[in-house]
Amino acid sequence: MIVLEQVSKRYRHRGADTDWFTAVAPLSLHIRAGEIFGLMGYSGAGKSTLLRLINLLERPDTGTVKVAGEELTALNAAGLRRARQHIGMVFQQFNLLANRTVADNVAFPLQVAGWTHHDIEARVAECLNIVGLADRAQHYPAQLSGGQKQRVGIARALAPSPKVILADEPTSALDPATTRSVLECLLDINQRFGVTIVIVTHEMSVIRRLCDRAALLHRGELLEVIDVKDNQIHAQSAIGQELVQED
Ligand SMILES: Nc1ncnc2c1ncn2[C@@H]1O[C@H](COP(=O)(O)OP(=O)(O)OP(=O)(O)O)[C@@H](O)[C@H]1O
Ligand SMILES: [Mg+2]
User: Fold this and answer.
1) Nearest CA residue ID for atom 7, ligand 1
2) Would 23 be classed as within a structural domain?
3) What is the pLDDT of residues 51-91, one digit of tens each?
4) Which residue, of 50, 86, 129, 205, has the fewest CB within 10 Å?
5) What is the CATH number of the domain that holds 166?
6) ∠36-47-40 over CA atoms, to 5°?
7) For the chain, how many structural domains are there in total?
8) How far, in Å, from the CA of 45 to the mean position of ligand 1?
9) Within a domain: 114
10) Could you tell which of 17, 21, 53, 169 is best to mutate to test the pocket of ligand 1, judged by most ligand atoms within 8 Å of the CB?
């Protein structure tokens, strides 16, 4: 579903023309259809950068990105806008529009994609049902708990029926009980609709609970791809074992 070949990203240090910092070193990664795939590692490892390379929110300096058989790195702006409709995104801080109701937040990507009013209404109701928030449709984000806000974020990502959902630390702003309900929601969407999910987290418990496999990043390098079986993590690298132990 997602094929990254030798992608890399460097940033210029503030104010310096010659001083470059490698956020993601050239790496290749294949993520299967229907998989829940984790990106893990310490702060600054390059997890968020790598996630944003998948939908080209960050354009890679080298390499190619393919999603659902389409090479995103070869598309023009219009092609990329169209291709991104197959890729939903969920954010740590929810990124809801405060002056729109829950229903209107979920409707937003469908309006951008030019859906009819009638179709939008039906799809929004369906998605709010899926995340268990049908009774909150006319509320505003400020009236919701953190977990409810994130489920609105998930409903919004799901609305255009994406093949892939990218989630950057979707539970880091939440307490443990709420975290569980949001993880259940993601798992449910994966199992019912076969949506491939890539989730950034520094929490091993999230990897254990949710993921089929996970990539371990350290200082921009891909150390290993870890299998998660029966909620057990089998890390080979020293850093991987350290992360597992800290949990
Ligand atoms: N736009 C940018 N300009 C300059 N440097 C950046 C930019 N974005 C990220 N970086 C640097 O690239 C490195 C990787 O950042 P990234 O946000 O991908 O890490 P992360 O693994 O998501 O960390 P965290 O767990 O703290 O979110 C960091 O050292 C960061 O400071
Ligand atoms: Mg990050």
Assistant:
1) 11
2) no
3) 999 999 999 999 999 999 999 999 999 999 999 999 999 99
4) 129
5) 3.40.50.300
6) 55
7) 1
8) 7
9) yes
10) 21
What is the CB neighbour count within 10 angstroms for residue 192? 9
**Mean pLDDT (the chain, rounded):** 94
18 is a domain residue? no
How many whole angstroms from 143 Cα to the centroid of ligand 2? 27
Confidence of residue 243 (pLDDT cuts 50, 70, 90): confident
pLDDT tens for 150-170 read 999 999 999 999 999 999 999
| Residue of the CA atom closest to atom 14 of ligand 1 | 46
Q: How far is the CA of 138 from the centre of ligand 2 (A)?
A: 32
Within-domain flag for 125: yes
Q: Residues 88-114: pLDDT tens digits?
A: 999 999 999 999 999 999 999 999 999
Ligand 1, CB cutoff 6 Å, lining residues: 11, 23, 41, 43-49, 202
Query: Of the residues 8, 10, 11, which should be mutated to test ligand 1's pocket, given the most ligand atoms within 8 Å of the CB?
Result: 11
**Size of the chain in residues:** 247
In this prediction, what percent of the chain has a pLDDT beyond 90? 86
Q: Which atom of ligand 1 is nearest to the CA of 47?
A: 21
Q: How far is the CA of 144 from the centre of ligand 2 (A)?
A: 25
User: Cα separation of 67 and 73, whole Å?
Assistant: 10
Range of the domain at 177: 35-58+83-246
